[in-house]
Amino acid sequence: MSRKKTSKKRQVFADPIYNSTLVTLLINKILLKGKKTISQKIFYQSMTKIKESTNQDSLEILRQAVLNITPRLEVKPRRIGGSTYQVPLEVKADRGTSLALRWLIKSARSRNGNEMVSKLTNEILDAYNNTGSSIRKREEMHKMAEANKAFANFRF
């Protein structure tokens, strides 16, 4: 990593169908081996399944699901005097969204079944209803931060 200057944030363009940058970020997380059209197909089919099953706006359900998964606190290791402490820190908005999308895709991939479309649909609906493994991951992170609250004075 360069010591001279920080790297610039890349601009993320909105997708053509929903006109949302969140959708573009999620499609890029689904991406495997550079096959973007396949990941777009998986995502859009999943959104139509959500719309059919709930009779609500699927983009709003996705936004609410990502908000439910987004962590507020995380722990980062900090080495002080020969020992390493897990210091709880607040999560910035961009990092929180990135973590939420990463956990959503990872837990969707680890579900049982063959079709990624149905696995992603079920995981988004579970996150919308505050259940599922991605919500459990956020709760684990919050418990870890709560347990190490005593080391909050080592914040950097």
UniProtKB/TrEMBL annotation:
<comment type="subunit">
    <text>Part of the 30S ribosomal subunit.</text>
</comment>
<keyword id="KW-0699">rRNA-binding</keyword>
<dbReference type="GO" id="GO:0015935">
    <property type="term" value="C:small ribosomal subunit"/>
</dbReference>
<feature type="domain" description="Small ribosomal subunit protein uS7">
    <location>
        <begin position="2"/>
        <end position="149"/>
    </location>
</feature>
<comment type="function">
    <text>One of the primary rRNA binding proteins, it binds directly to 16S rRNA where it nucleates assembly of the head domain of the 30S subunit.</text>
</comment>
<protein>
    <recommendedName>
        <fullName>Small ribosomal subunit protein uS7c</fullName>
    </recommendedName>
</protein>
<dbReference type="GO" id="GO:0019843">
    <property type="term" value="F:rRNA binding"/>
</dbReference>
<keyword id="KW-0687">Ribonucleoprotein</keyword>
<dbReference type="GO" id="GO:0009507">
    <property type="term" value="C:chloroplast"/>
</dbReference>
<dbReference type="InterPro" id="IPR023798">
    <property type="entry name" value="Ribosomal_uS7_dom"/>
</dbReference>
<keyword id="KW-0934">Plastid</keyword>
<keyword id="KW-0694">RNA-binding</keyword>
<dbReference type="GO" id="GO:0006412">
    <property type="term" value="P:translation"/>
</dbReference>
<comment type="similarity">
    <text>Belongs to the universal ribosomal protein uS7 family.</text>
</comment>
<dbReference type="InterPro" id="IPR020606">
    <property type="entry name" value="Ribosomal_uS7_CS"/>
</dbReference>
<dbReference type="InterPro" id="IPR036823">
    <property type="entry name" value="Ribosomal_uS7_dom_sf"/>
</dbReference>
<dbReference type="InterPro" id="IPR005717">
    <property type="entry name" value="Ribosomal_uS7_bac/org-type"/>
</dbReference>
<dbReference type="Pfam" id="PF00177">
    <property type="entry name" value="Ribosomal_S7"/>
</dbReference>
<dbReference type="InterPro" id="IPR000235">
    <property type="entry name" value="Ribosomal_uS7"/>
</dbReference>
<dbReference type="GO" id="GO:0003735">
    <property type="term" value="F:structural constituent of ribosome"/>
</dbReference>
<keyword id="KW-0689">Ribosomal protein</keyword>
<keyword id="KW-0150">Chloroplast</keyword>
